[in-house]
Amino acid sequence: MNFILHNRRKLIRIVNIFKIQTISENTNNHYLQNMSNIISDHVSNADIIHETPSIESLLQMYLDSLSEKETMAYNIAKHHLGTSFSLPKSNGFIEWKKQNAYS
C-alpha cells in the first residue's frame, strides 16, 4: 500500500499521538527515539508520492504537450462545438492521462 508522505514533522506528531502512556519515562524516550529513527529511515528511503495535480494544471500540461497540428484541431473543435466541447472528456486528454499515469 502506498502512503503519501507529506513531511517528517507530521509523522513525528503521529508517533506522539499514539505513544504508550504506561511506559516509564526512560523507556518512553527510548521508544520514541526508536520510532523517530524508523520513520526517518523510511522517509529518507521511500519514493515520496506527489499528490495528483489539479484538473486545471493537468489540462494545461496536456495542451502544452500538443503538436502544432493537434493544437489547430483542438481550436477548431472548440470553435465548432462551442459549449458542448469538453476537454476533460475528450479521447485525447483521457488517453494522455493514462499514458502519463494521472488516471
The helix count comes to 5
Helix proportion: 55-70%
Rg on CA atoms, Å: 24 Å
Quote the beta fraction.
under 5%
Write a brief structural summary.
The protein is mostly helical. Helix content is 63%, strand content 0%. The two termini are 17 Å apart.
Description:
It is a single chain. The protein is an all-alpha fold and 103 residues long. The chain has 2 domains: 8-45; 55-99, no CATH class. It contains 5 helices and no strands. The protein has helices at 8-17, 25-45, 55-65, 68-81, 91-99. The longest helix is centred in the middle third of the chain and has 21 residues, at 25-45. The protein is rod-shaped.
Supply the key terms:
103 residues, mainly alpha
Topology of helices and strands:
Layout: H1 8-17, H2 25-45, H3 55-65, H4 68-81, H5 91-99
